[in-house]
Design brief:
This protein has about 350 residues and is α/β, with parallel strands linked by helices. It is about 50% helix and about 10% strand. It folds into 2 domains: about 190 residues, 3-Layer(aba) Sandwich (Rossmann fold), CATH 3.40.50.880; about 160 residues, Ferritin, CATH 1.20.1260. The protein has 12 helices and 11 strands. Strands 5-2-1-6-7-11-10 form a 7-stranded mixed beta sheet, sandwiched between helices. The chain has a two-stranded antiparallel ribbon with strand order 3-4. Strands 8-9 form a two-stranded parallel sheet. The longest helix has 29 residues.
Length: about 350
């Protein structure tokens, strides 16, 4: 058998364990197969079936890391999951690294490289939750879609997968018939199309995510305007107005992405007028401390909901917008919390988040 460029086919192992990250497995697996590579799924136990973290995949490995040797492969792919806990897997990765094989790790996958102490002095990236782990392992953490520090390739999240996988294909000298692989440094490229072709987010799923984010930001934009009209404390009013202005900019960026890229109109009207009527009714019987408390809850909900959207999409440009929104809201969360504590004093109560999903129902 030969690959699509006429040479001996490349052999790639994907290492998995229970609770592996769905997209971090699926996209490299699909792309490598399309490129004519021989892909072998390696687990830690014979005859097991592994279920993915989000429950969309159940995979039975072809073999185990105990019975295979690193010499058999040109590259390893390590999706996020709990794989670092298995000593046989860790030993397998170490042997591959000694032999100079490409090691491609995404999400929490770089934890295996931490386990074998092979990040010291290197540039690497990974999911935000393990940034400190990467830095403590002696690496220079780079907040970028994909970092190549031969023979390591690392990426942060599902939104980076099309760039990450393209890097891997190029480094293995693989191509996909009928498909030109973009330059991985072209971040402005519409990578979502490759992501969709390789089993990632569909066009409709990205549109739905954008609409969800727009609904959330538009609703809370109006809410914060109403909050600011009903408080007399100047510091509180100015902060609420500042957040309103921020949310207006968020809405503009999201709508531009929806219109210019996907040529779609916003479906935010589905939220309906009942939500706004309920908000105005609540405001009529609320004092300033209650308003400040609710505003804090709204921002906290926005941080969580936007973070979740960031981690389910394989469109880098949409994810960049969502991440900016999440980080903006996280900064204002702390400012609101400080102001709430200062005004409420001993009467501080836990904030009650209001989710747009709940309002929409």
């Amino acid at each position: 058998m030969t690959s699509n460029n006429g040479s001996t086919p490349k052999k790639v192992a994907i290492l998995i364990e229970n609770q592996f990250e769905d997209l971090e497995f699926k996209i490299p697996y699909t792309a490598l197969q399309k490129a004519g590579a021989i892909v072998t799924i390696l687990g830690s136990r014979m005859n097991d079936e592994y279920k993915s973290y989000r429950g969309t995949l159940t995979v039975k490995p072809d073999a185990t890391t105990t019975e295979m040797v690193a010499d058999d492969f040109d590259a390893l792919v390590i999706p996020g999951g709990s794989i670092r806990s298995n000593p046989n897997v860790v030993r397998f990765v170490m042997n591959a690294l000694i032999q100079g094989k490409w090691i491609a790790a995404v999400g929490s996958g770089p934890q295996v490289l931490i386990e074998i102490d092979q990040l010291r002095g290197r540039k690497a990236t990974g999911m935000r939750a393990i940034r400190k782990d990467i830095e403590n392992a002696g690496a220079i953490y780079v907040d970028a879609p994909t970092i190549v520090d031969a023979p390591l390739i690392t990426a942060r999240r599902p939104g980076d997968l099309s760039i990450f996988t393209t890097n891997l294909l190029r480094l293995l000298d693989l191509t996909i018939e009928g498909s030109a692989l973009p330059d991985p440094t072209e971040h402005a490229h519409e990578w979502w199309e490759l992501g969709e072709a390789w089993g990632g987010s569909s066009r409709q799923e990205i549109i739905q995510a954008l609409n969800t984010a727009i609904i959330g930001e538009r609703y809370t934009l109006e809410a914060f305007r109403q909050y600011s009209y009903r408080v007399s404390d100047n510091d509180v009013r100015l902060l609420l107005q500042e957040i309103s202005d921020l949310k207006q900019r968020h809405v503009k960026r999201l709508e531009e992405r929806l219109h210019k890229t996907f040529h779609e109109q916003v479906s935010w009207q589905a939220l309906g007028s009942e939500a706004y009527a309920a908000l105005r009714s609540w405001l009529q019987s609320s004092n300033e401390i209650s308003i400040l408390r609710r505003a804090l809850g709204d921002v906290q909900t926005g941080v969580i909901d936007t973070y979740r959207l960031c981690n389910k999409l394989t469109d880098p440009l949409t994810v960049d917008i969502l991440e900016t929104i999440e980080q903006d809201l996280a900064r204002y969360e702390q400012r609101l919390a400080n102001l709430y504590r200062a005004r409420a004093g001993e009467h501080v109560q836990p904030p009650i988040p209001t989710t747009v999903a709940a309002v929409a129902r």
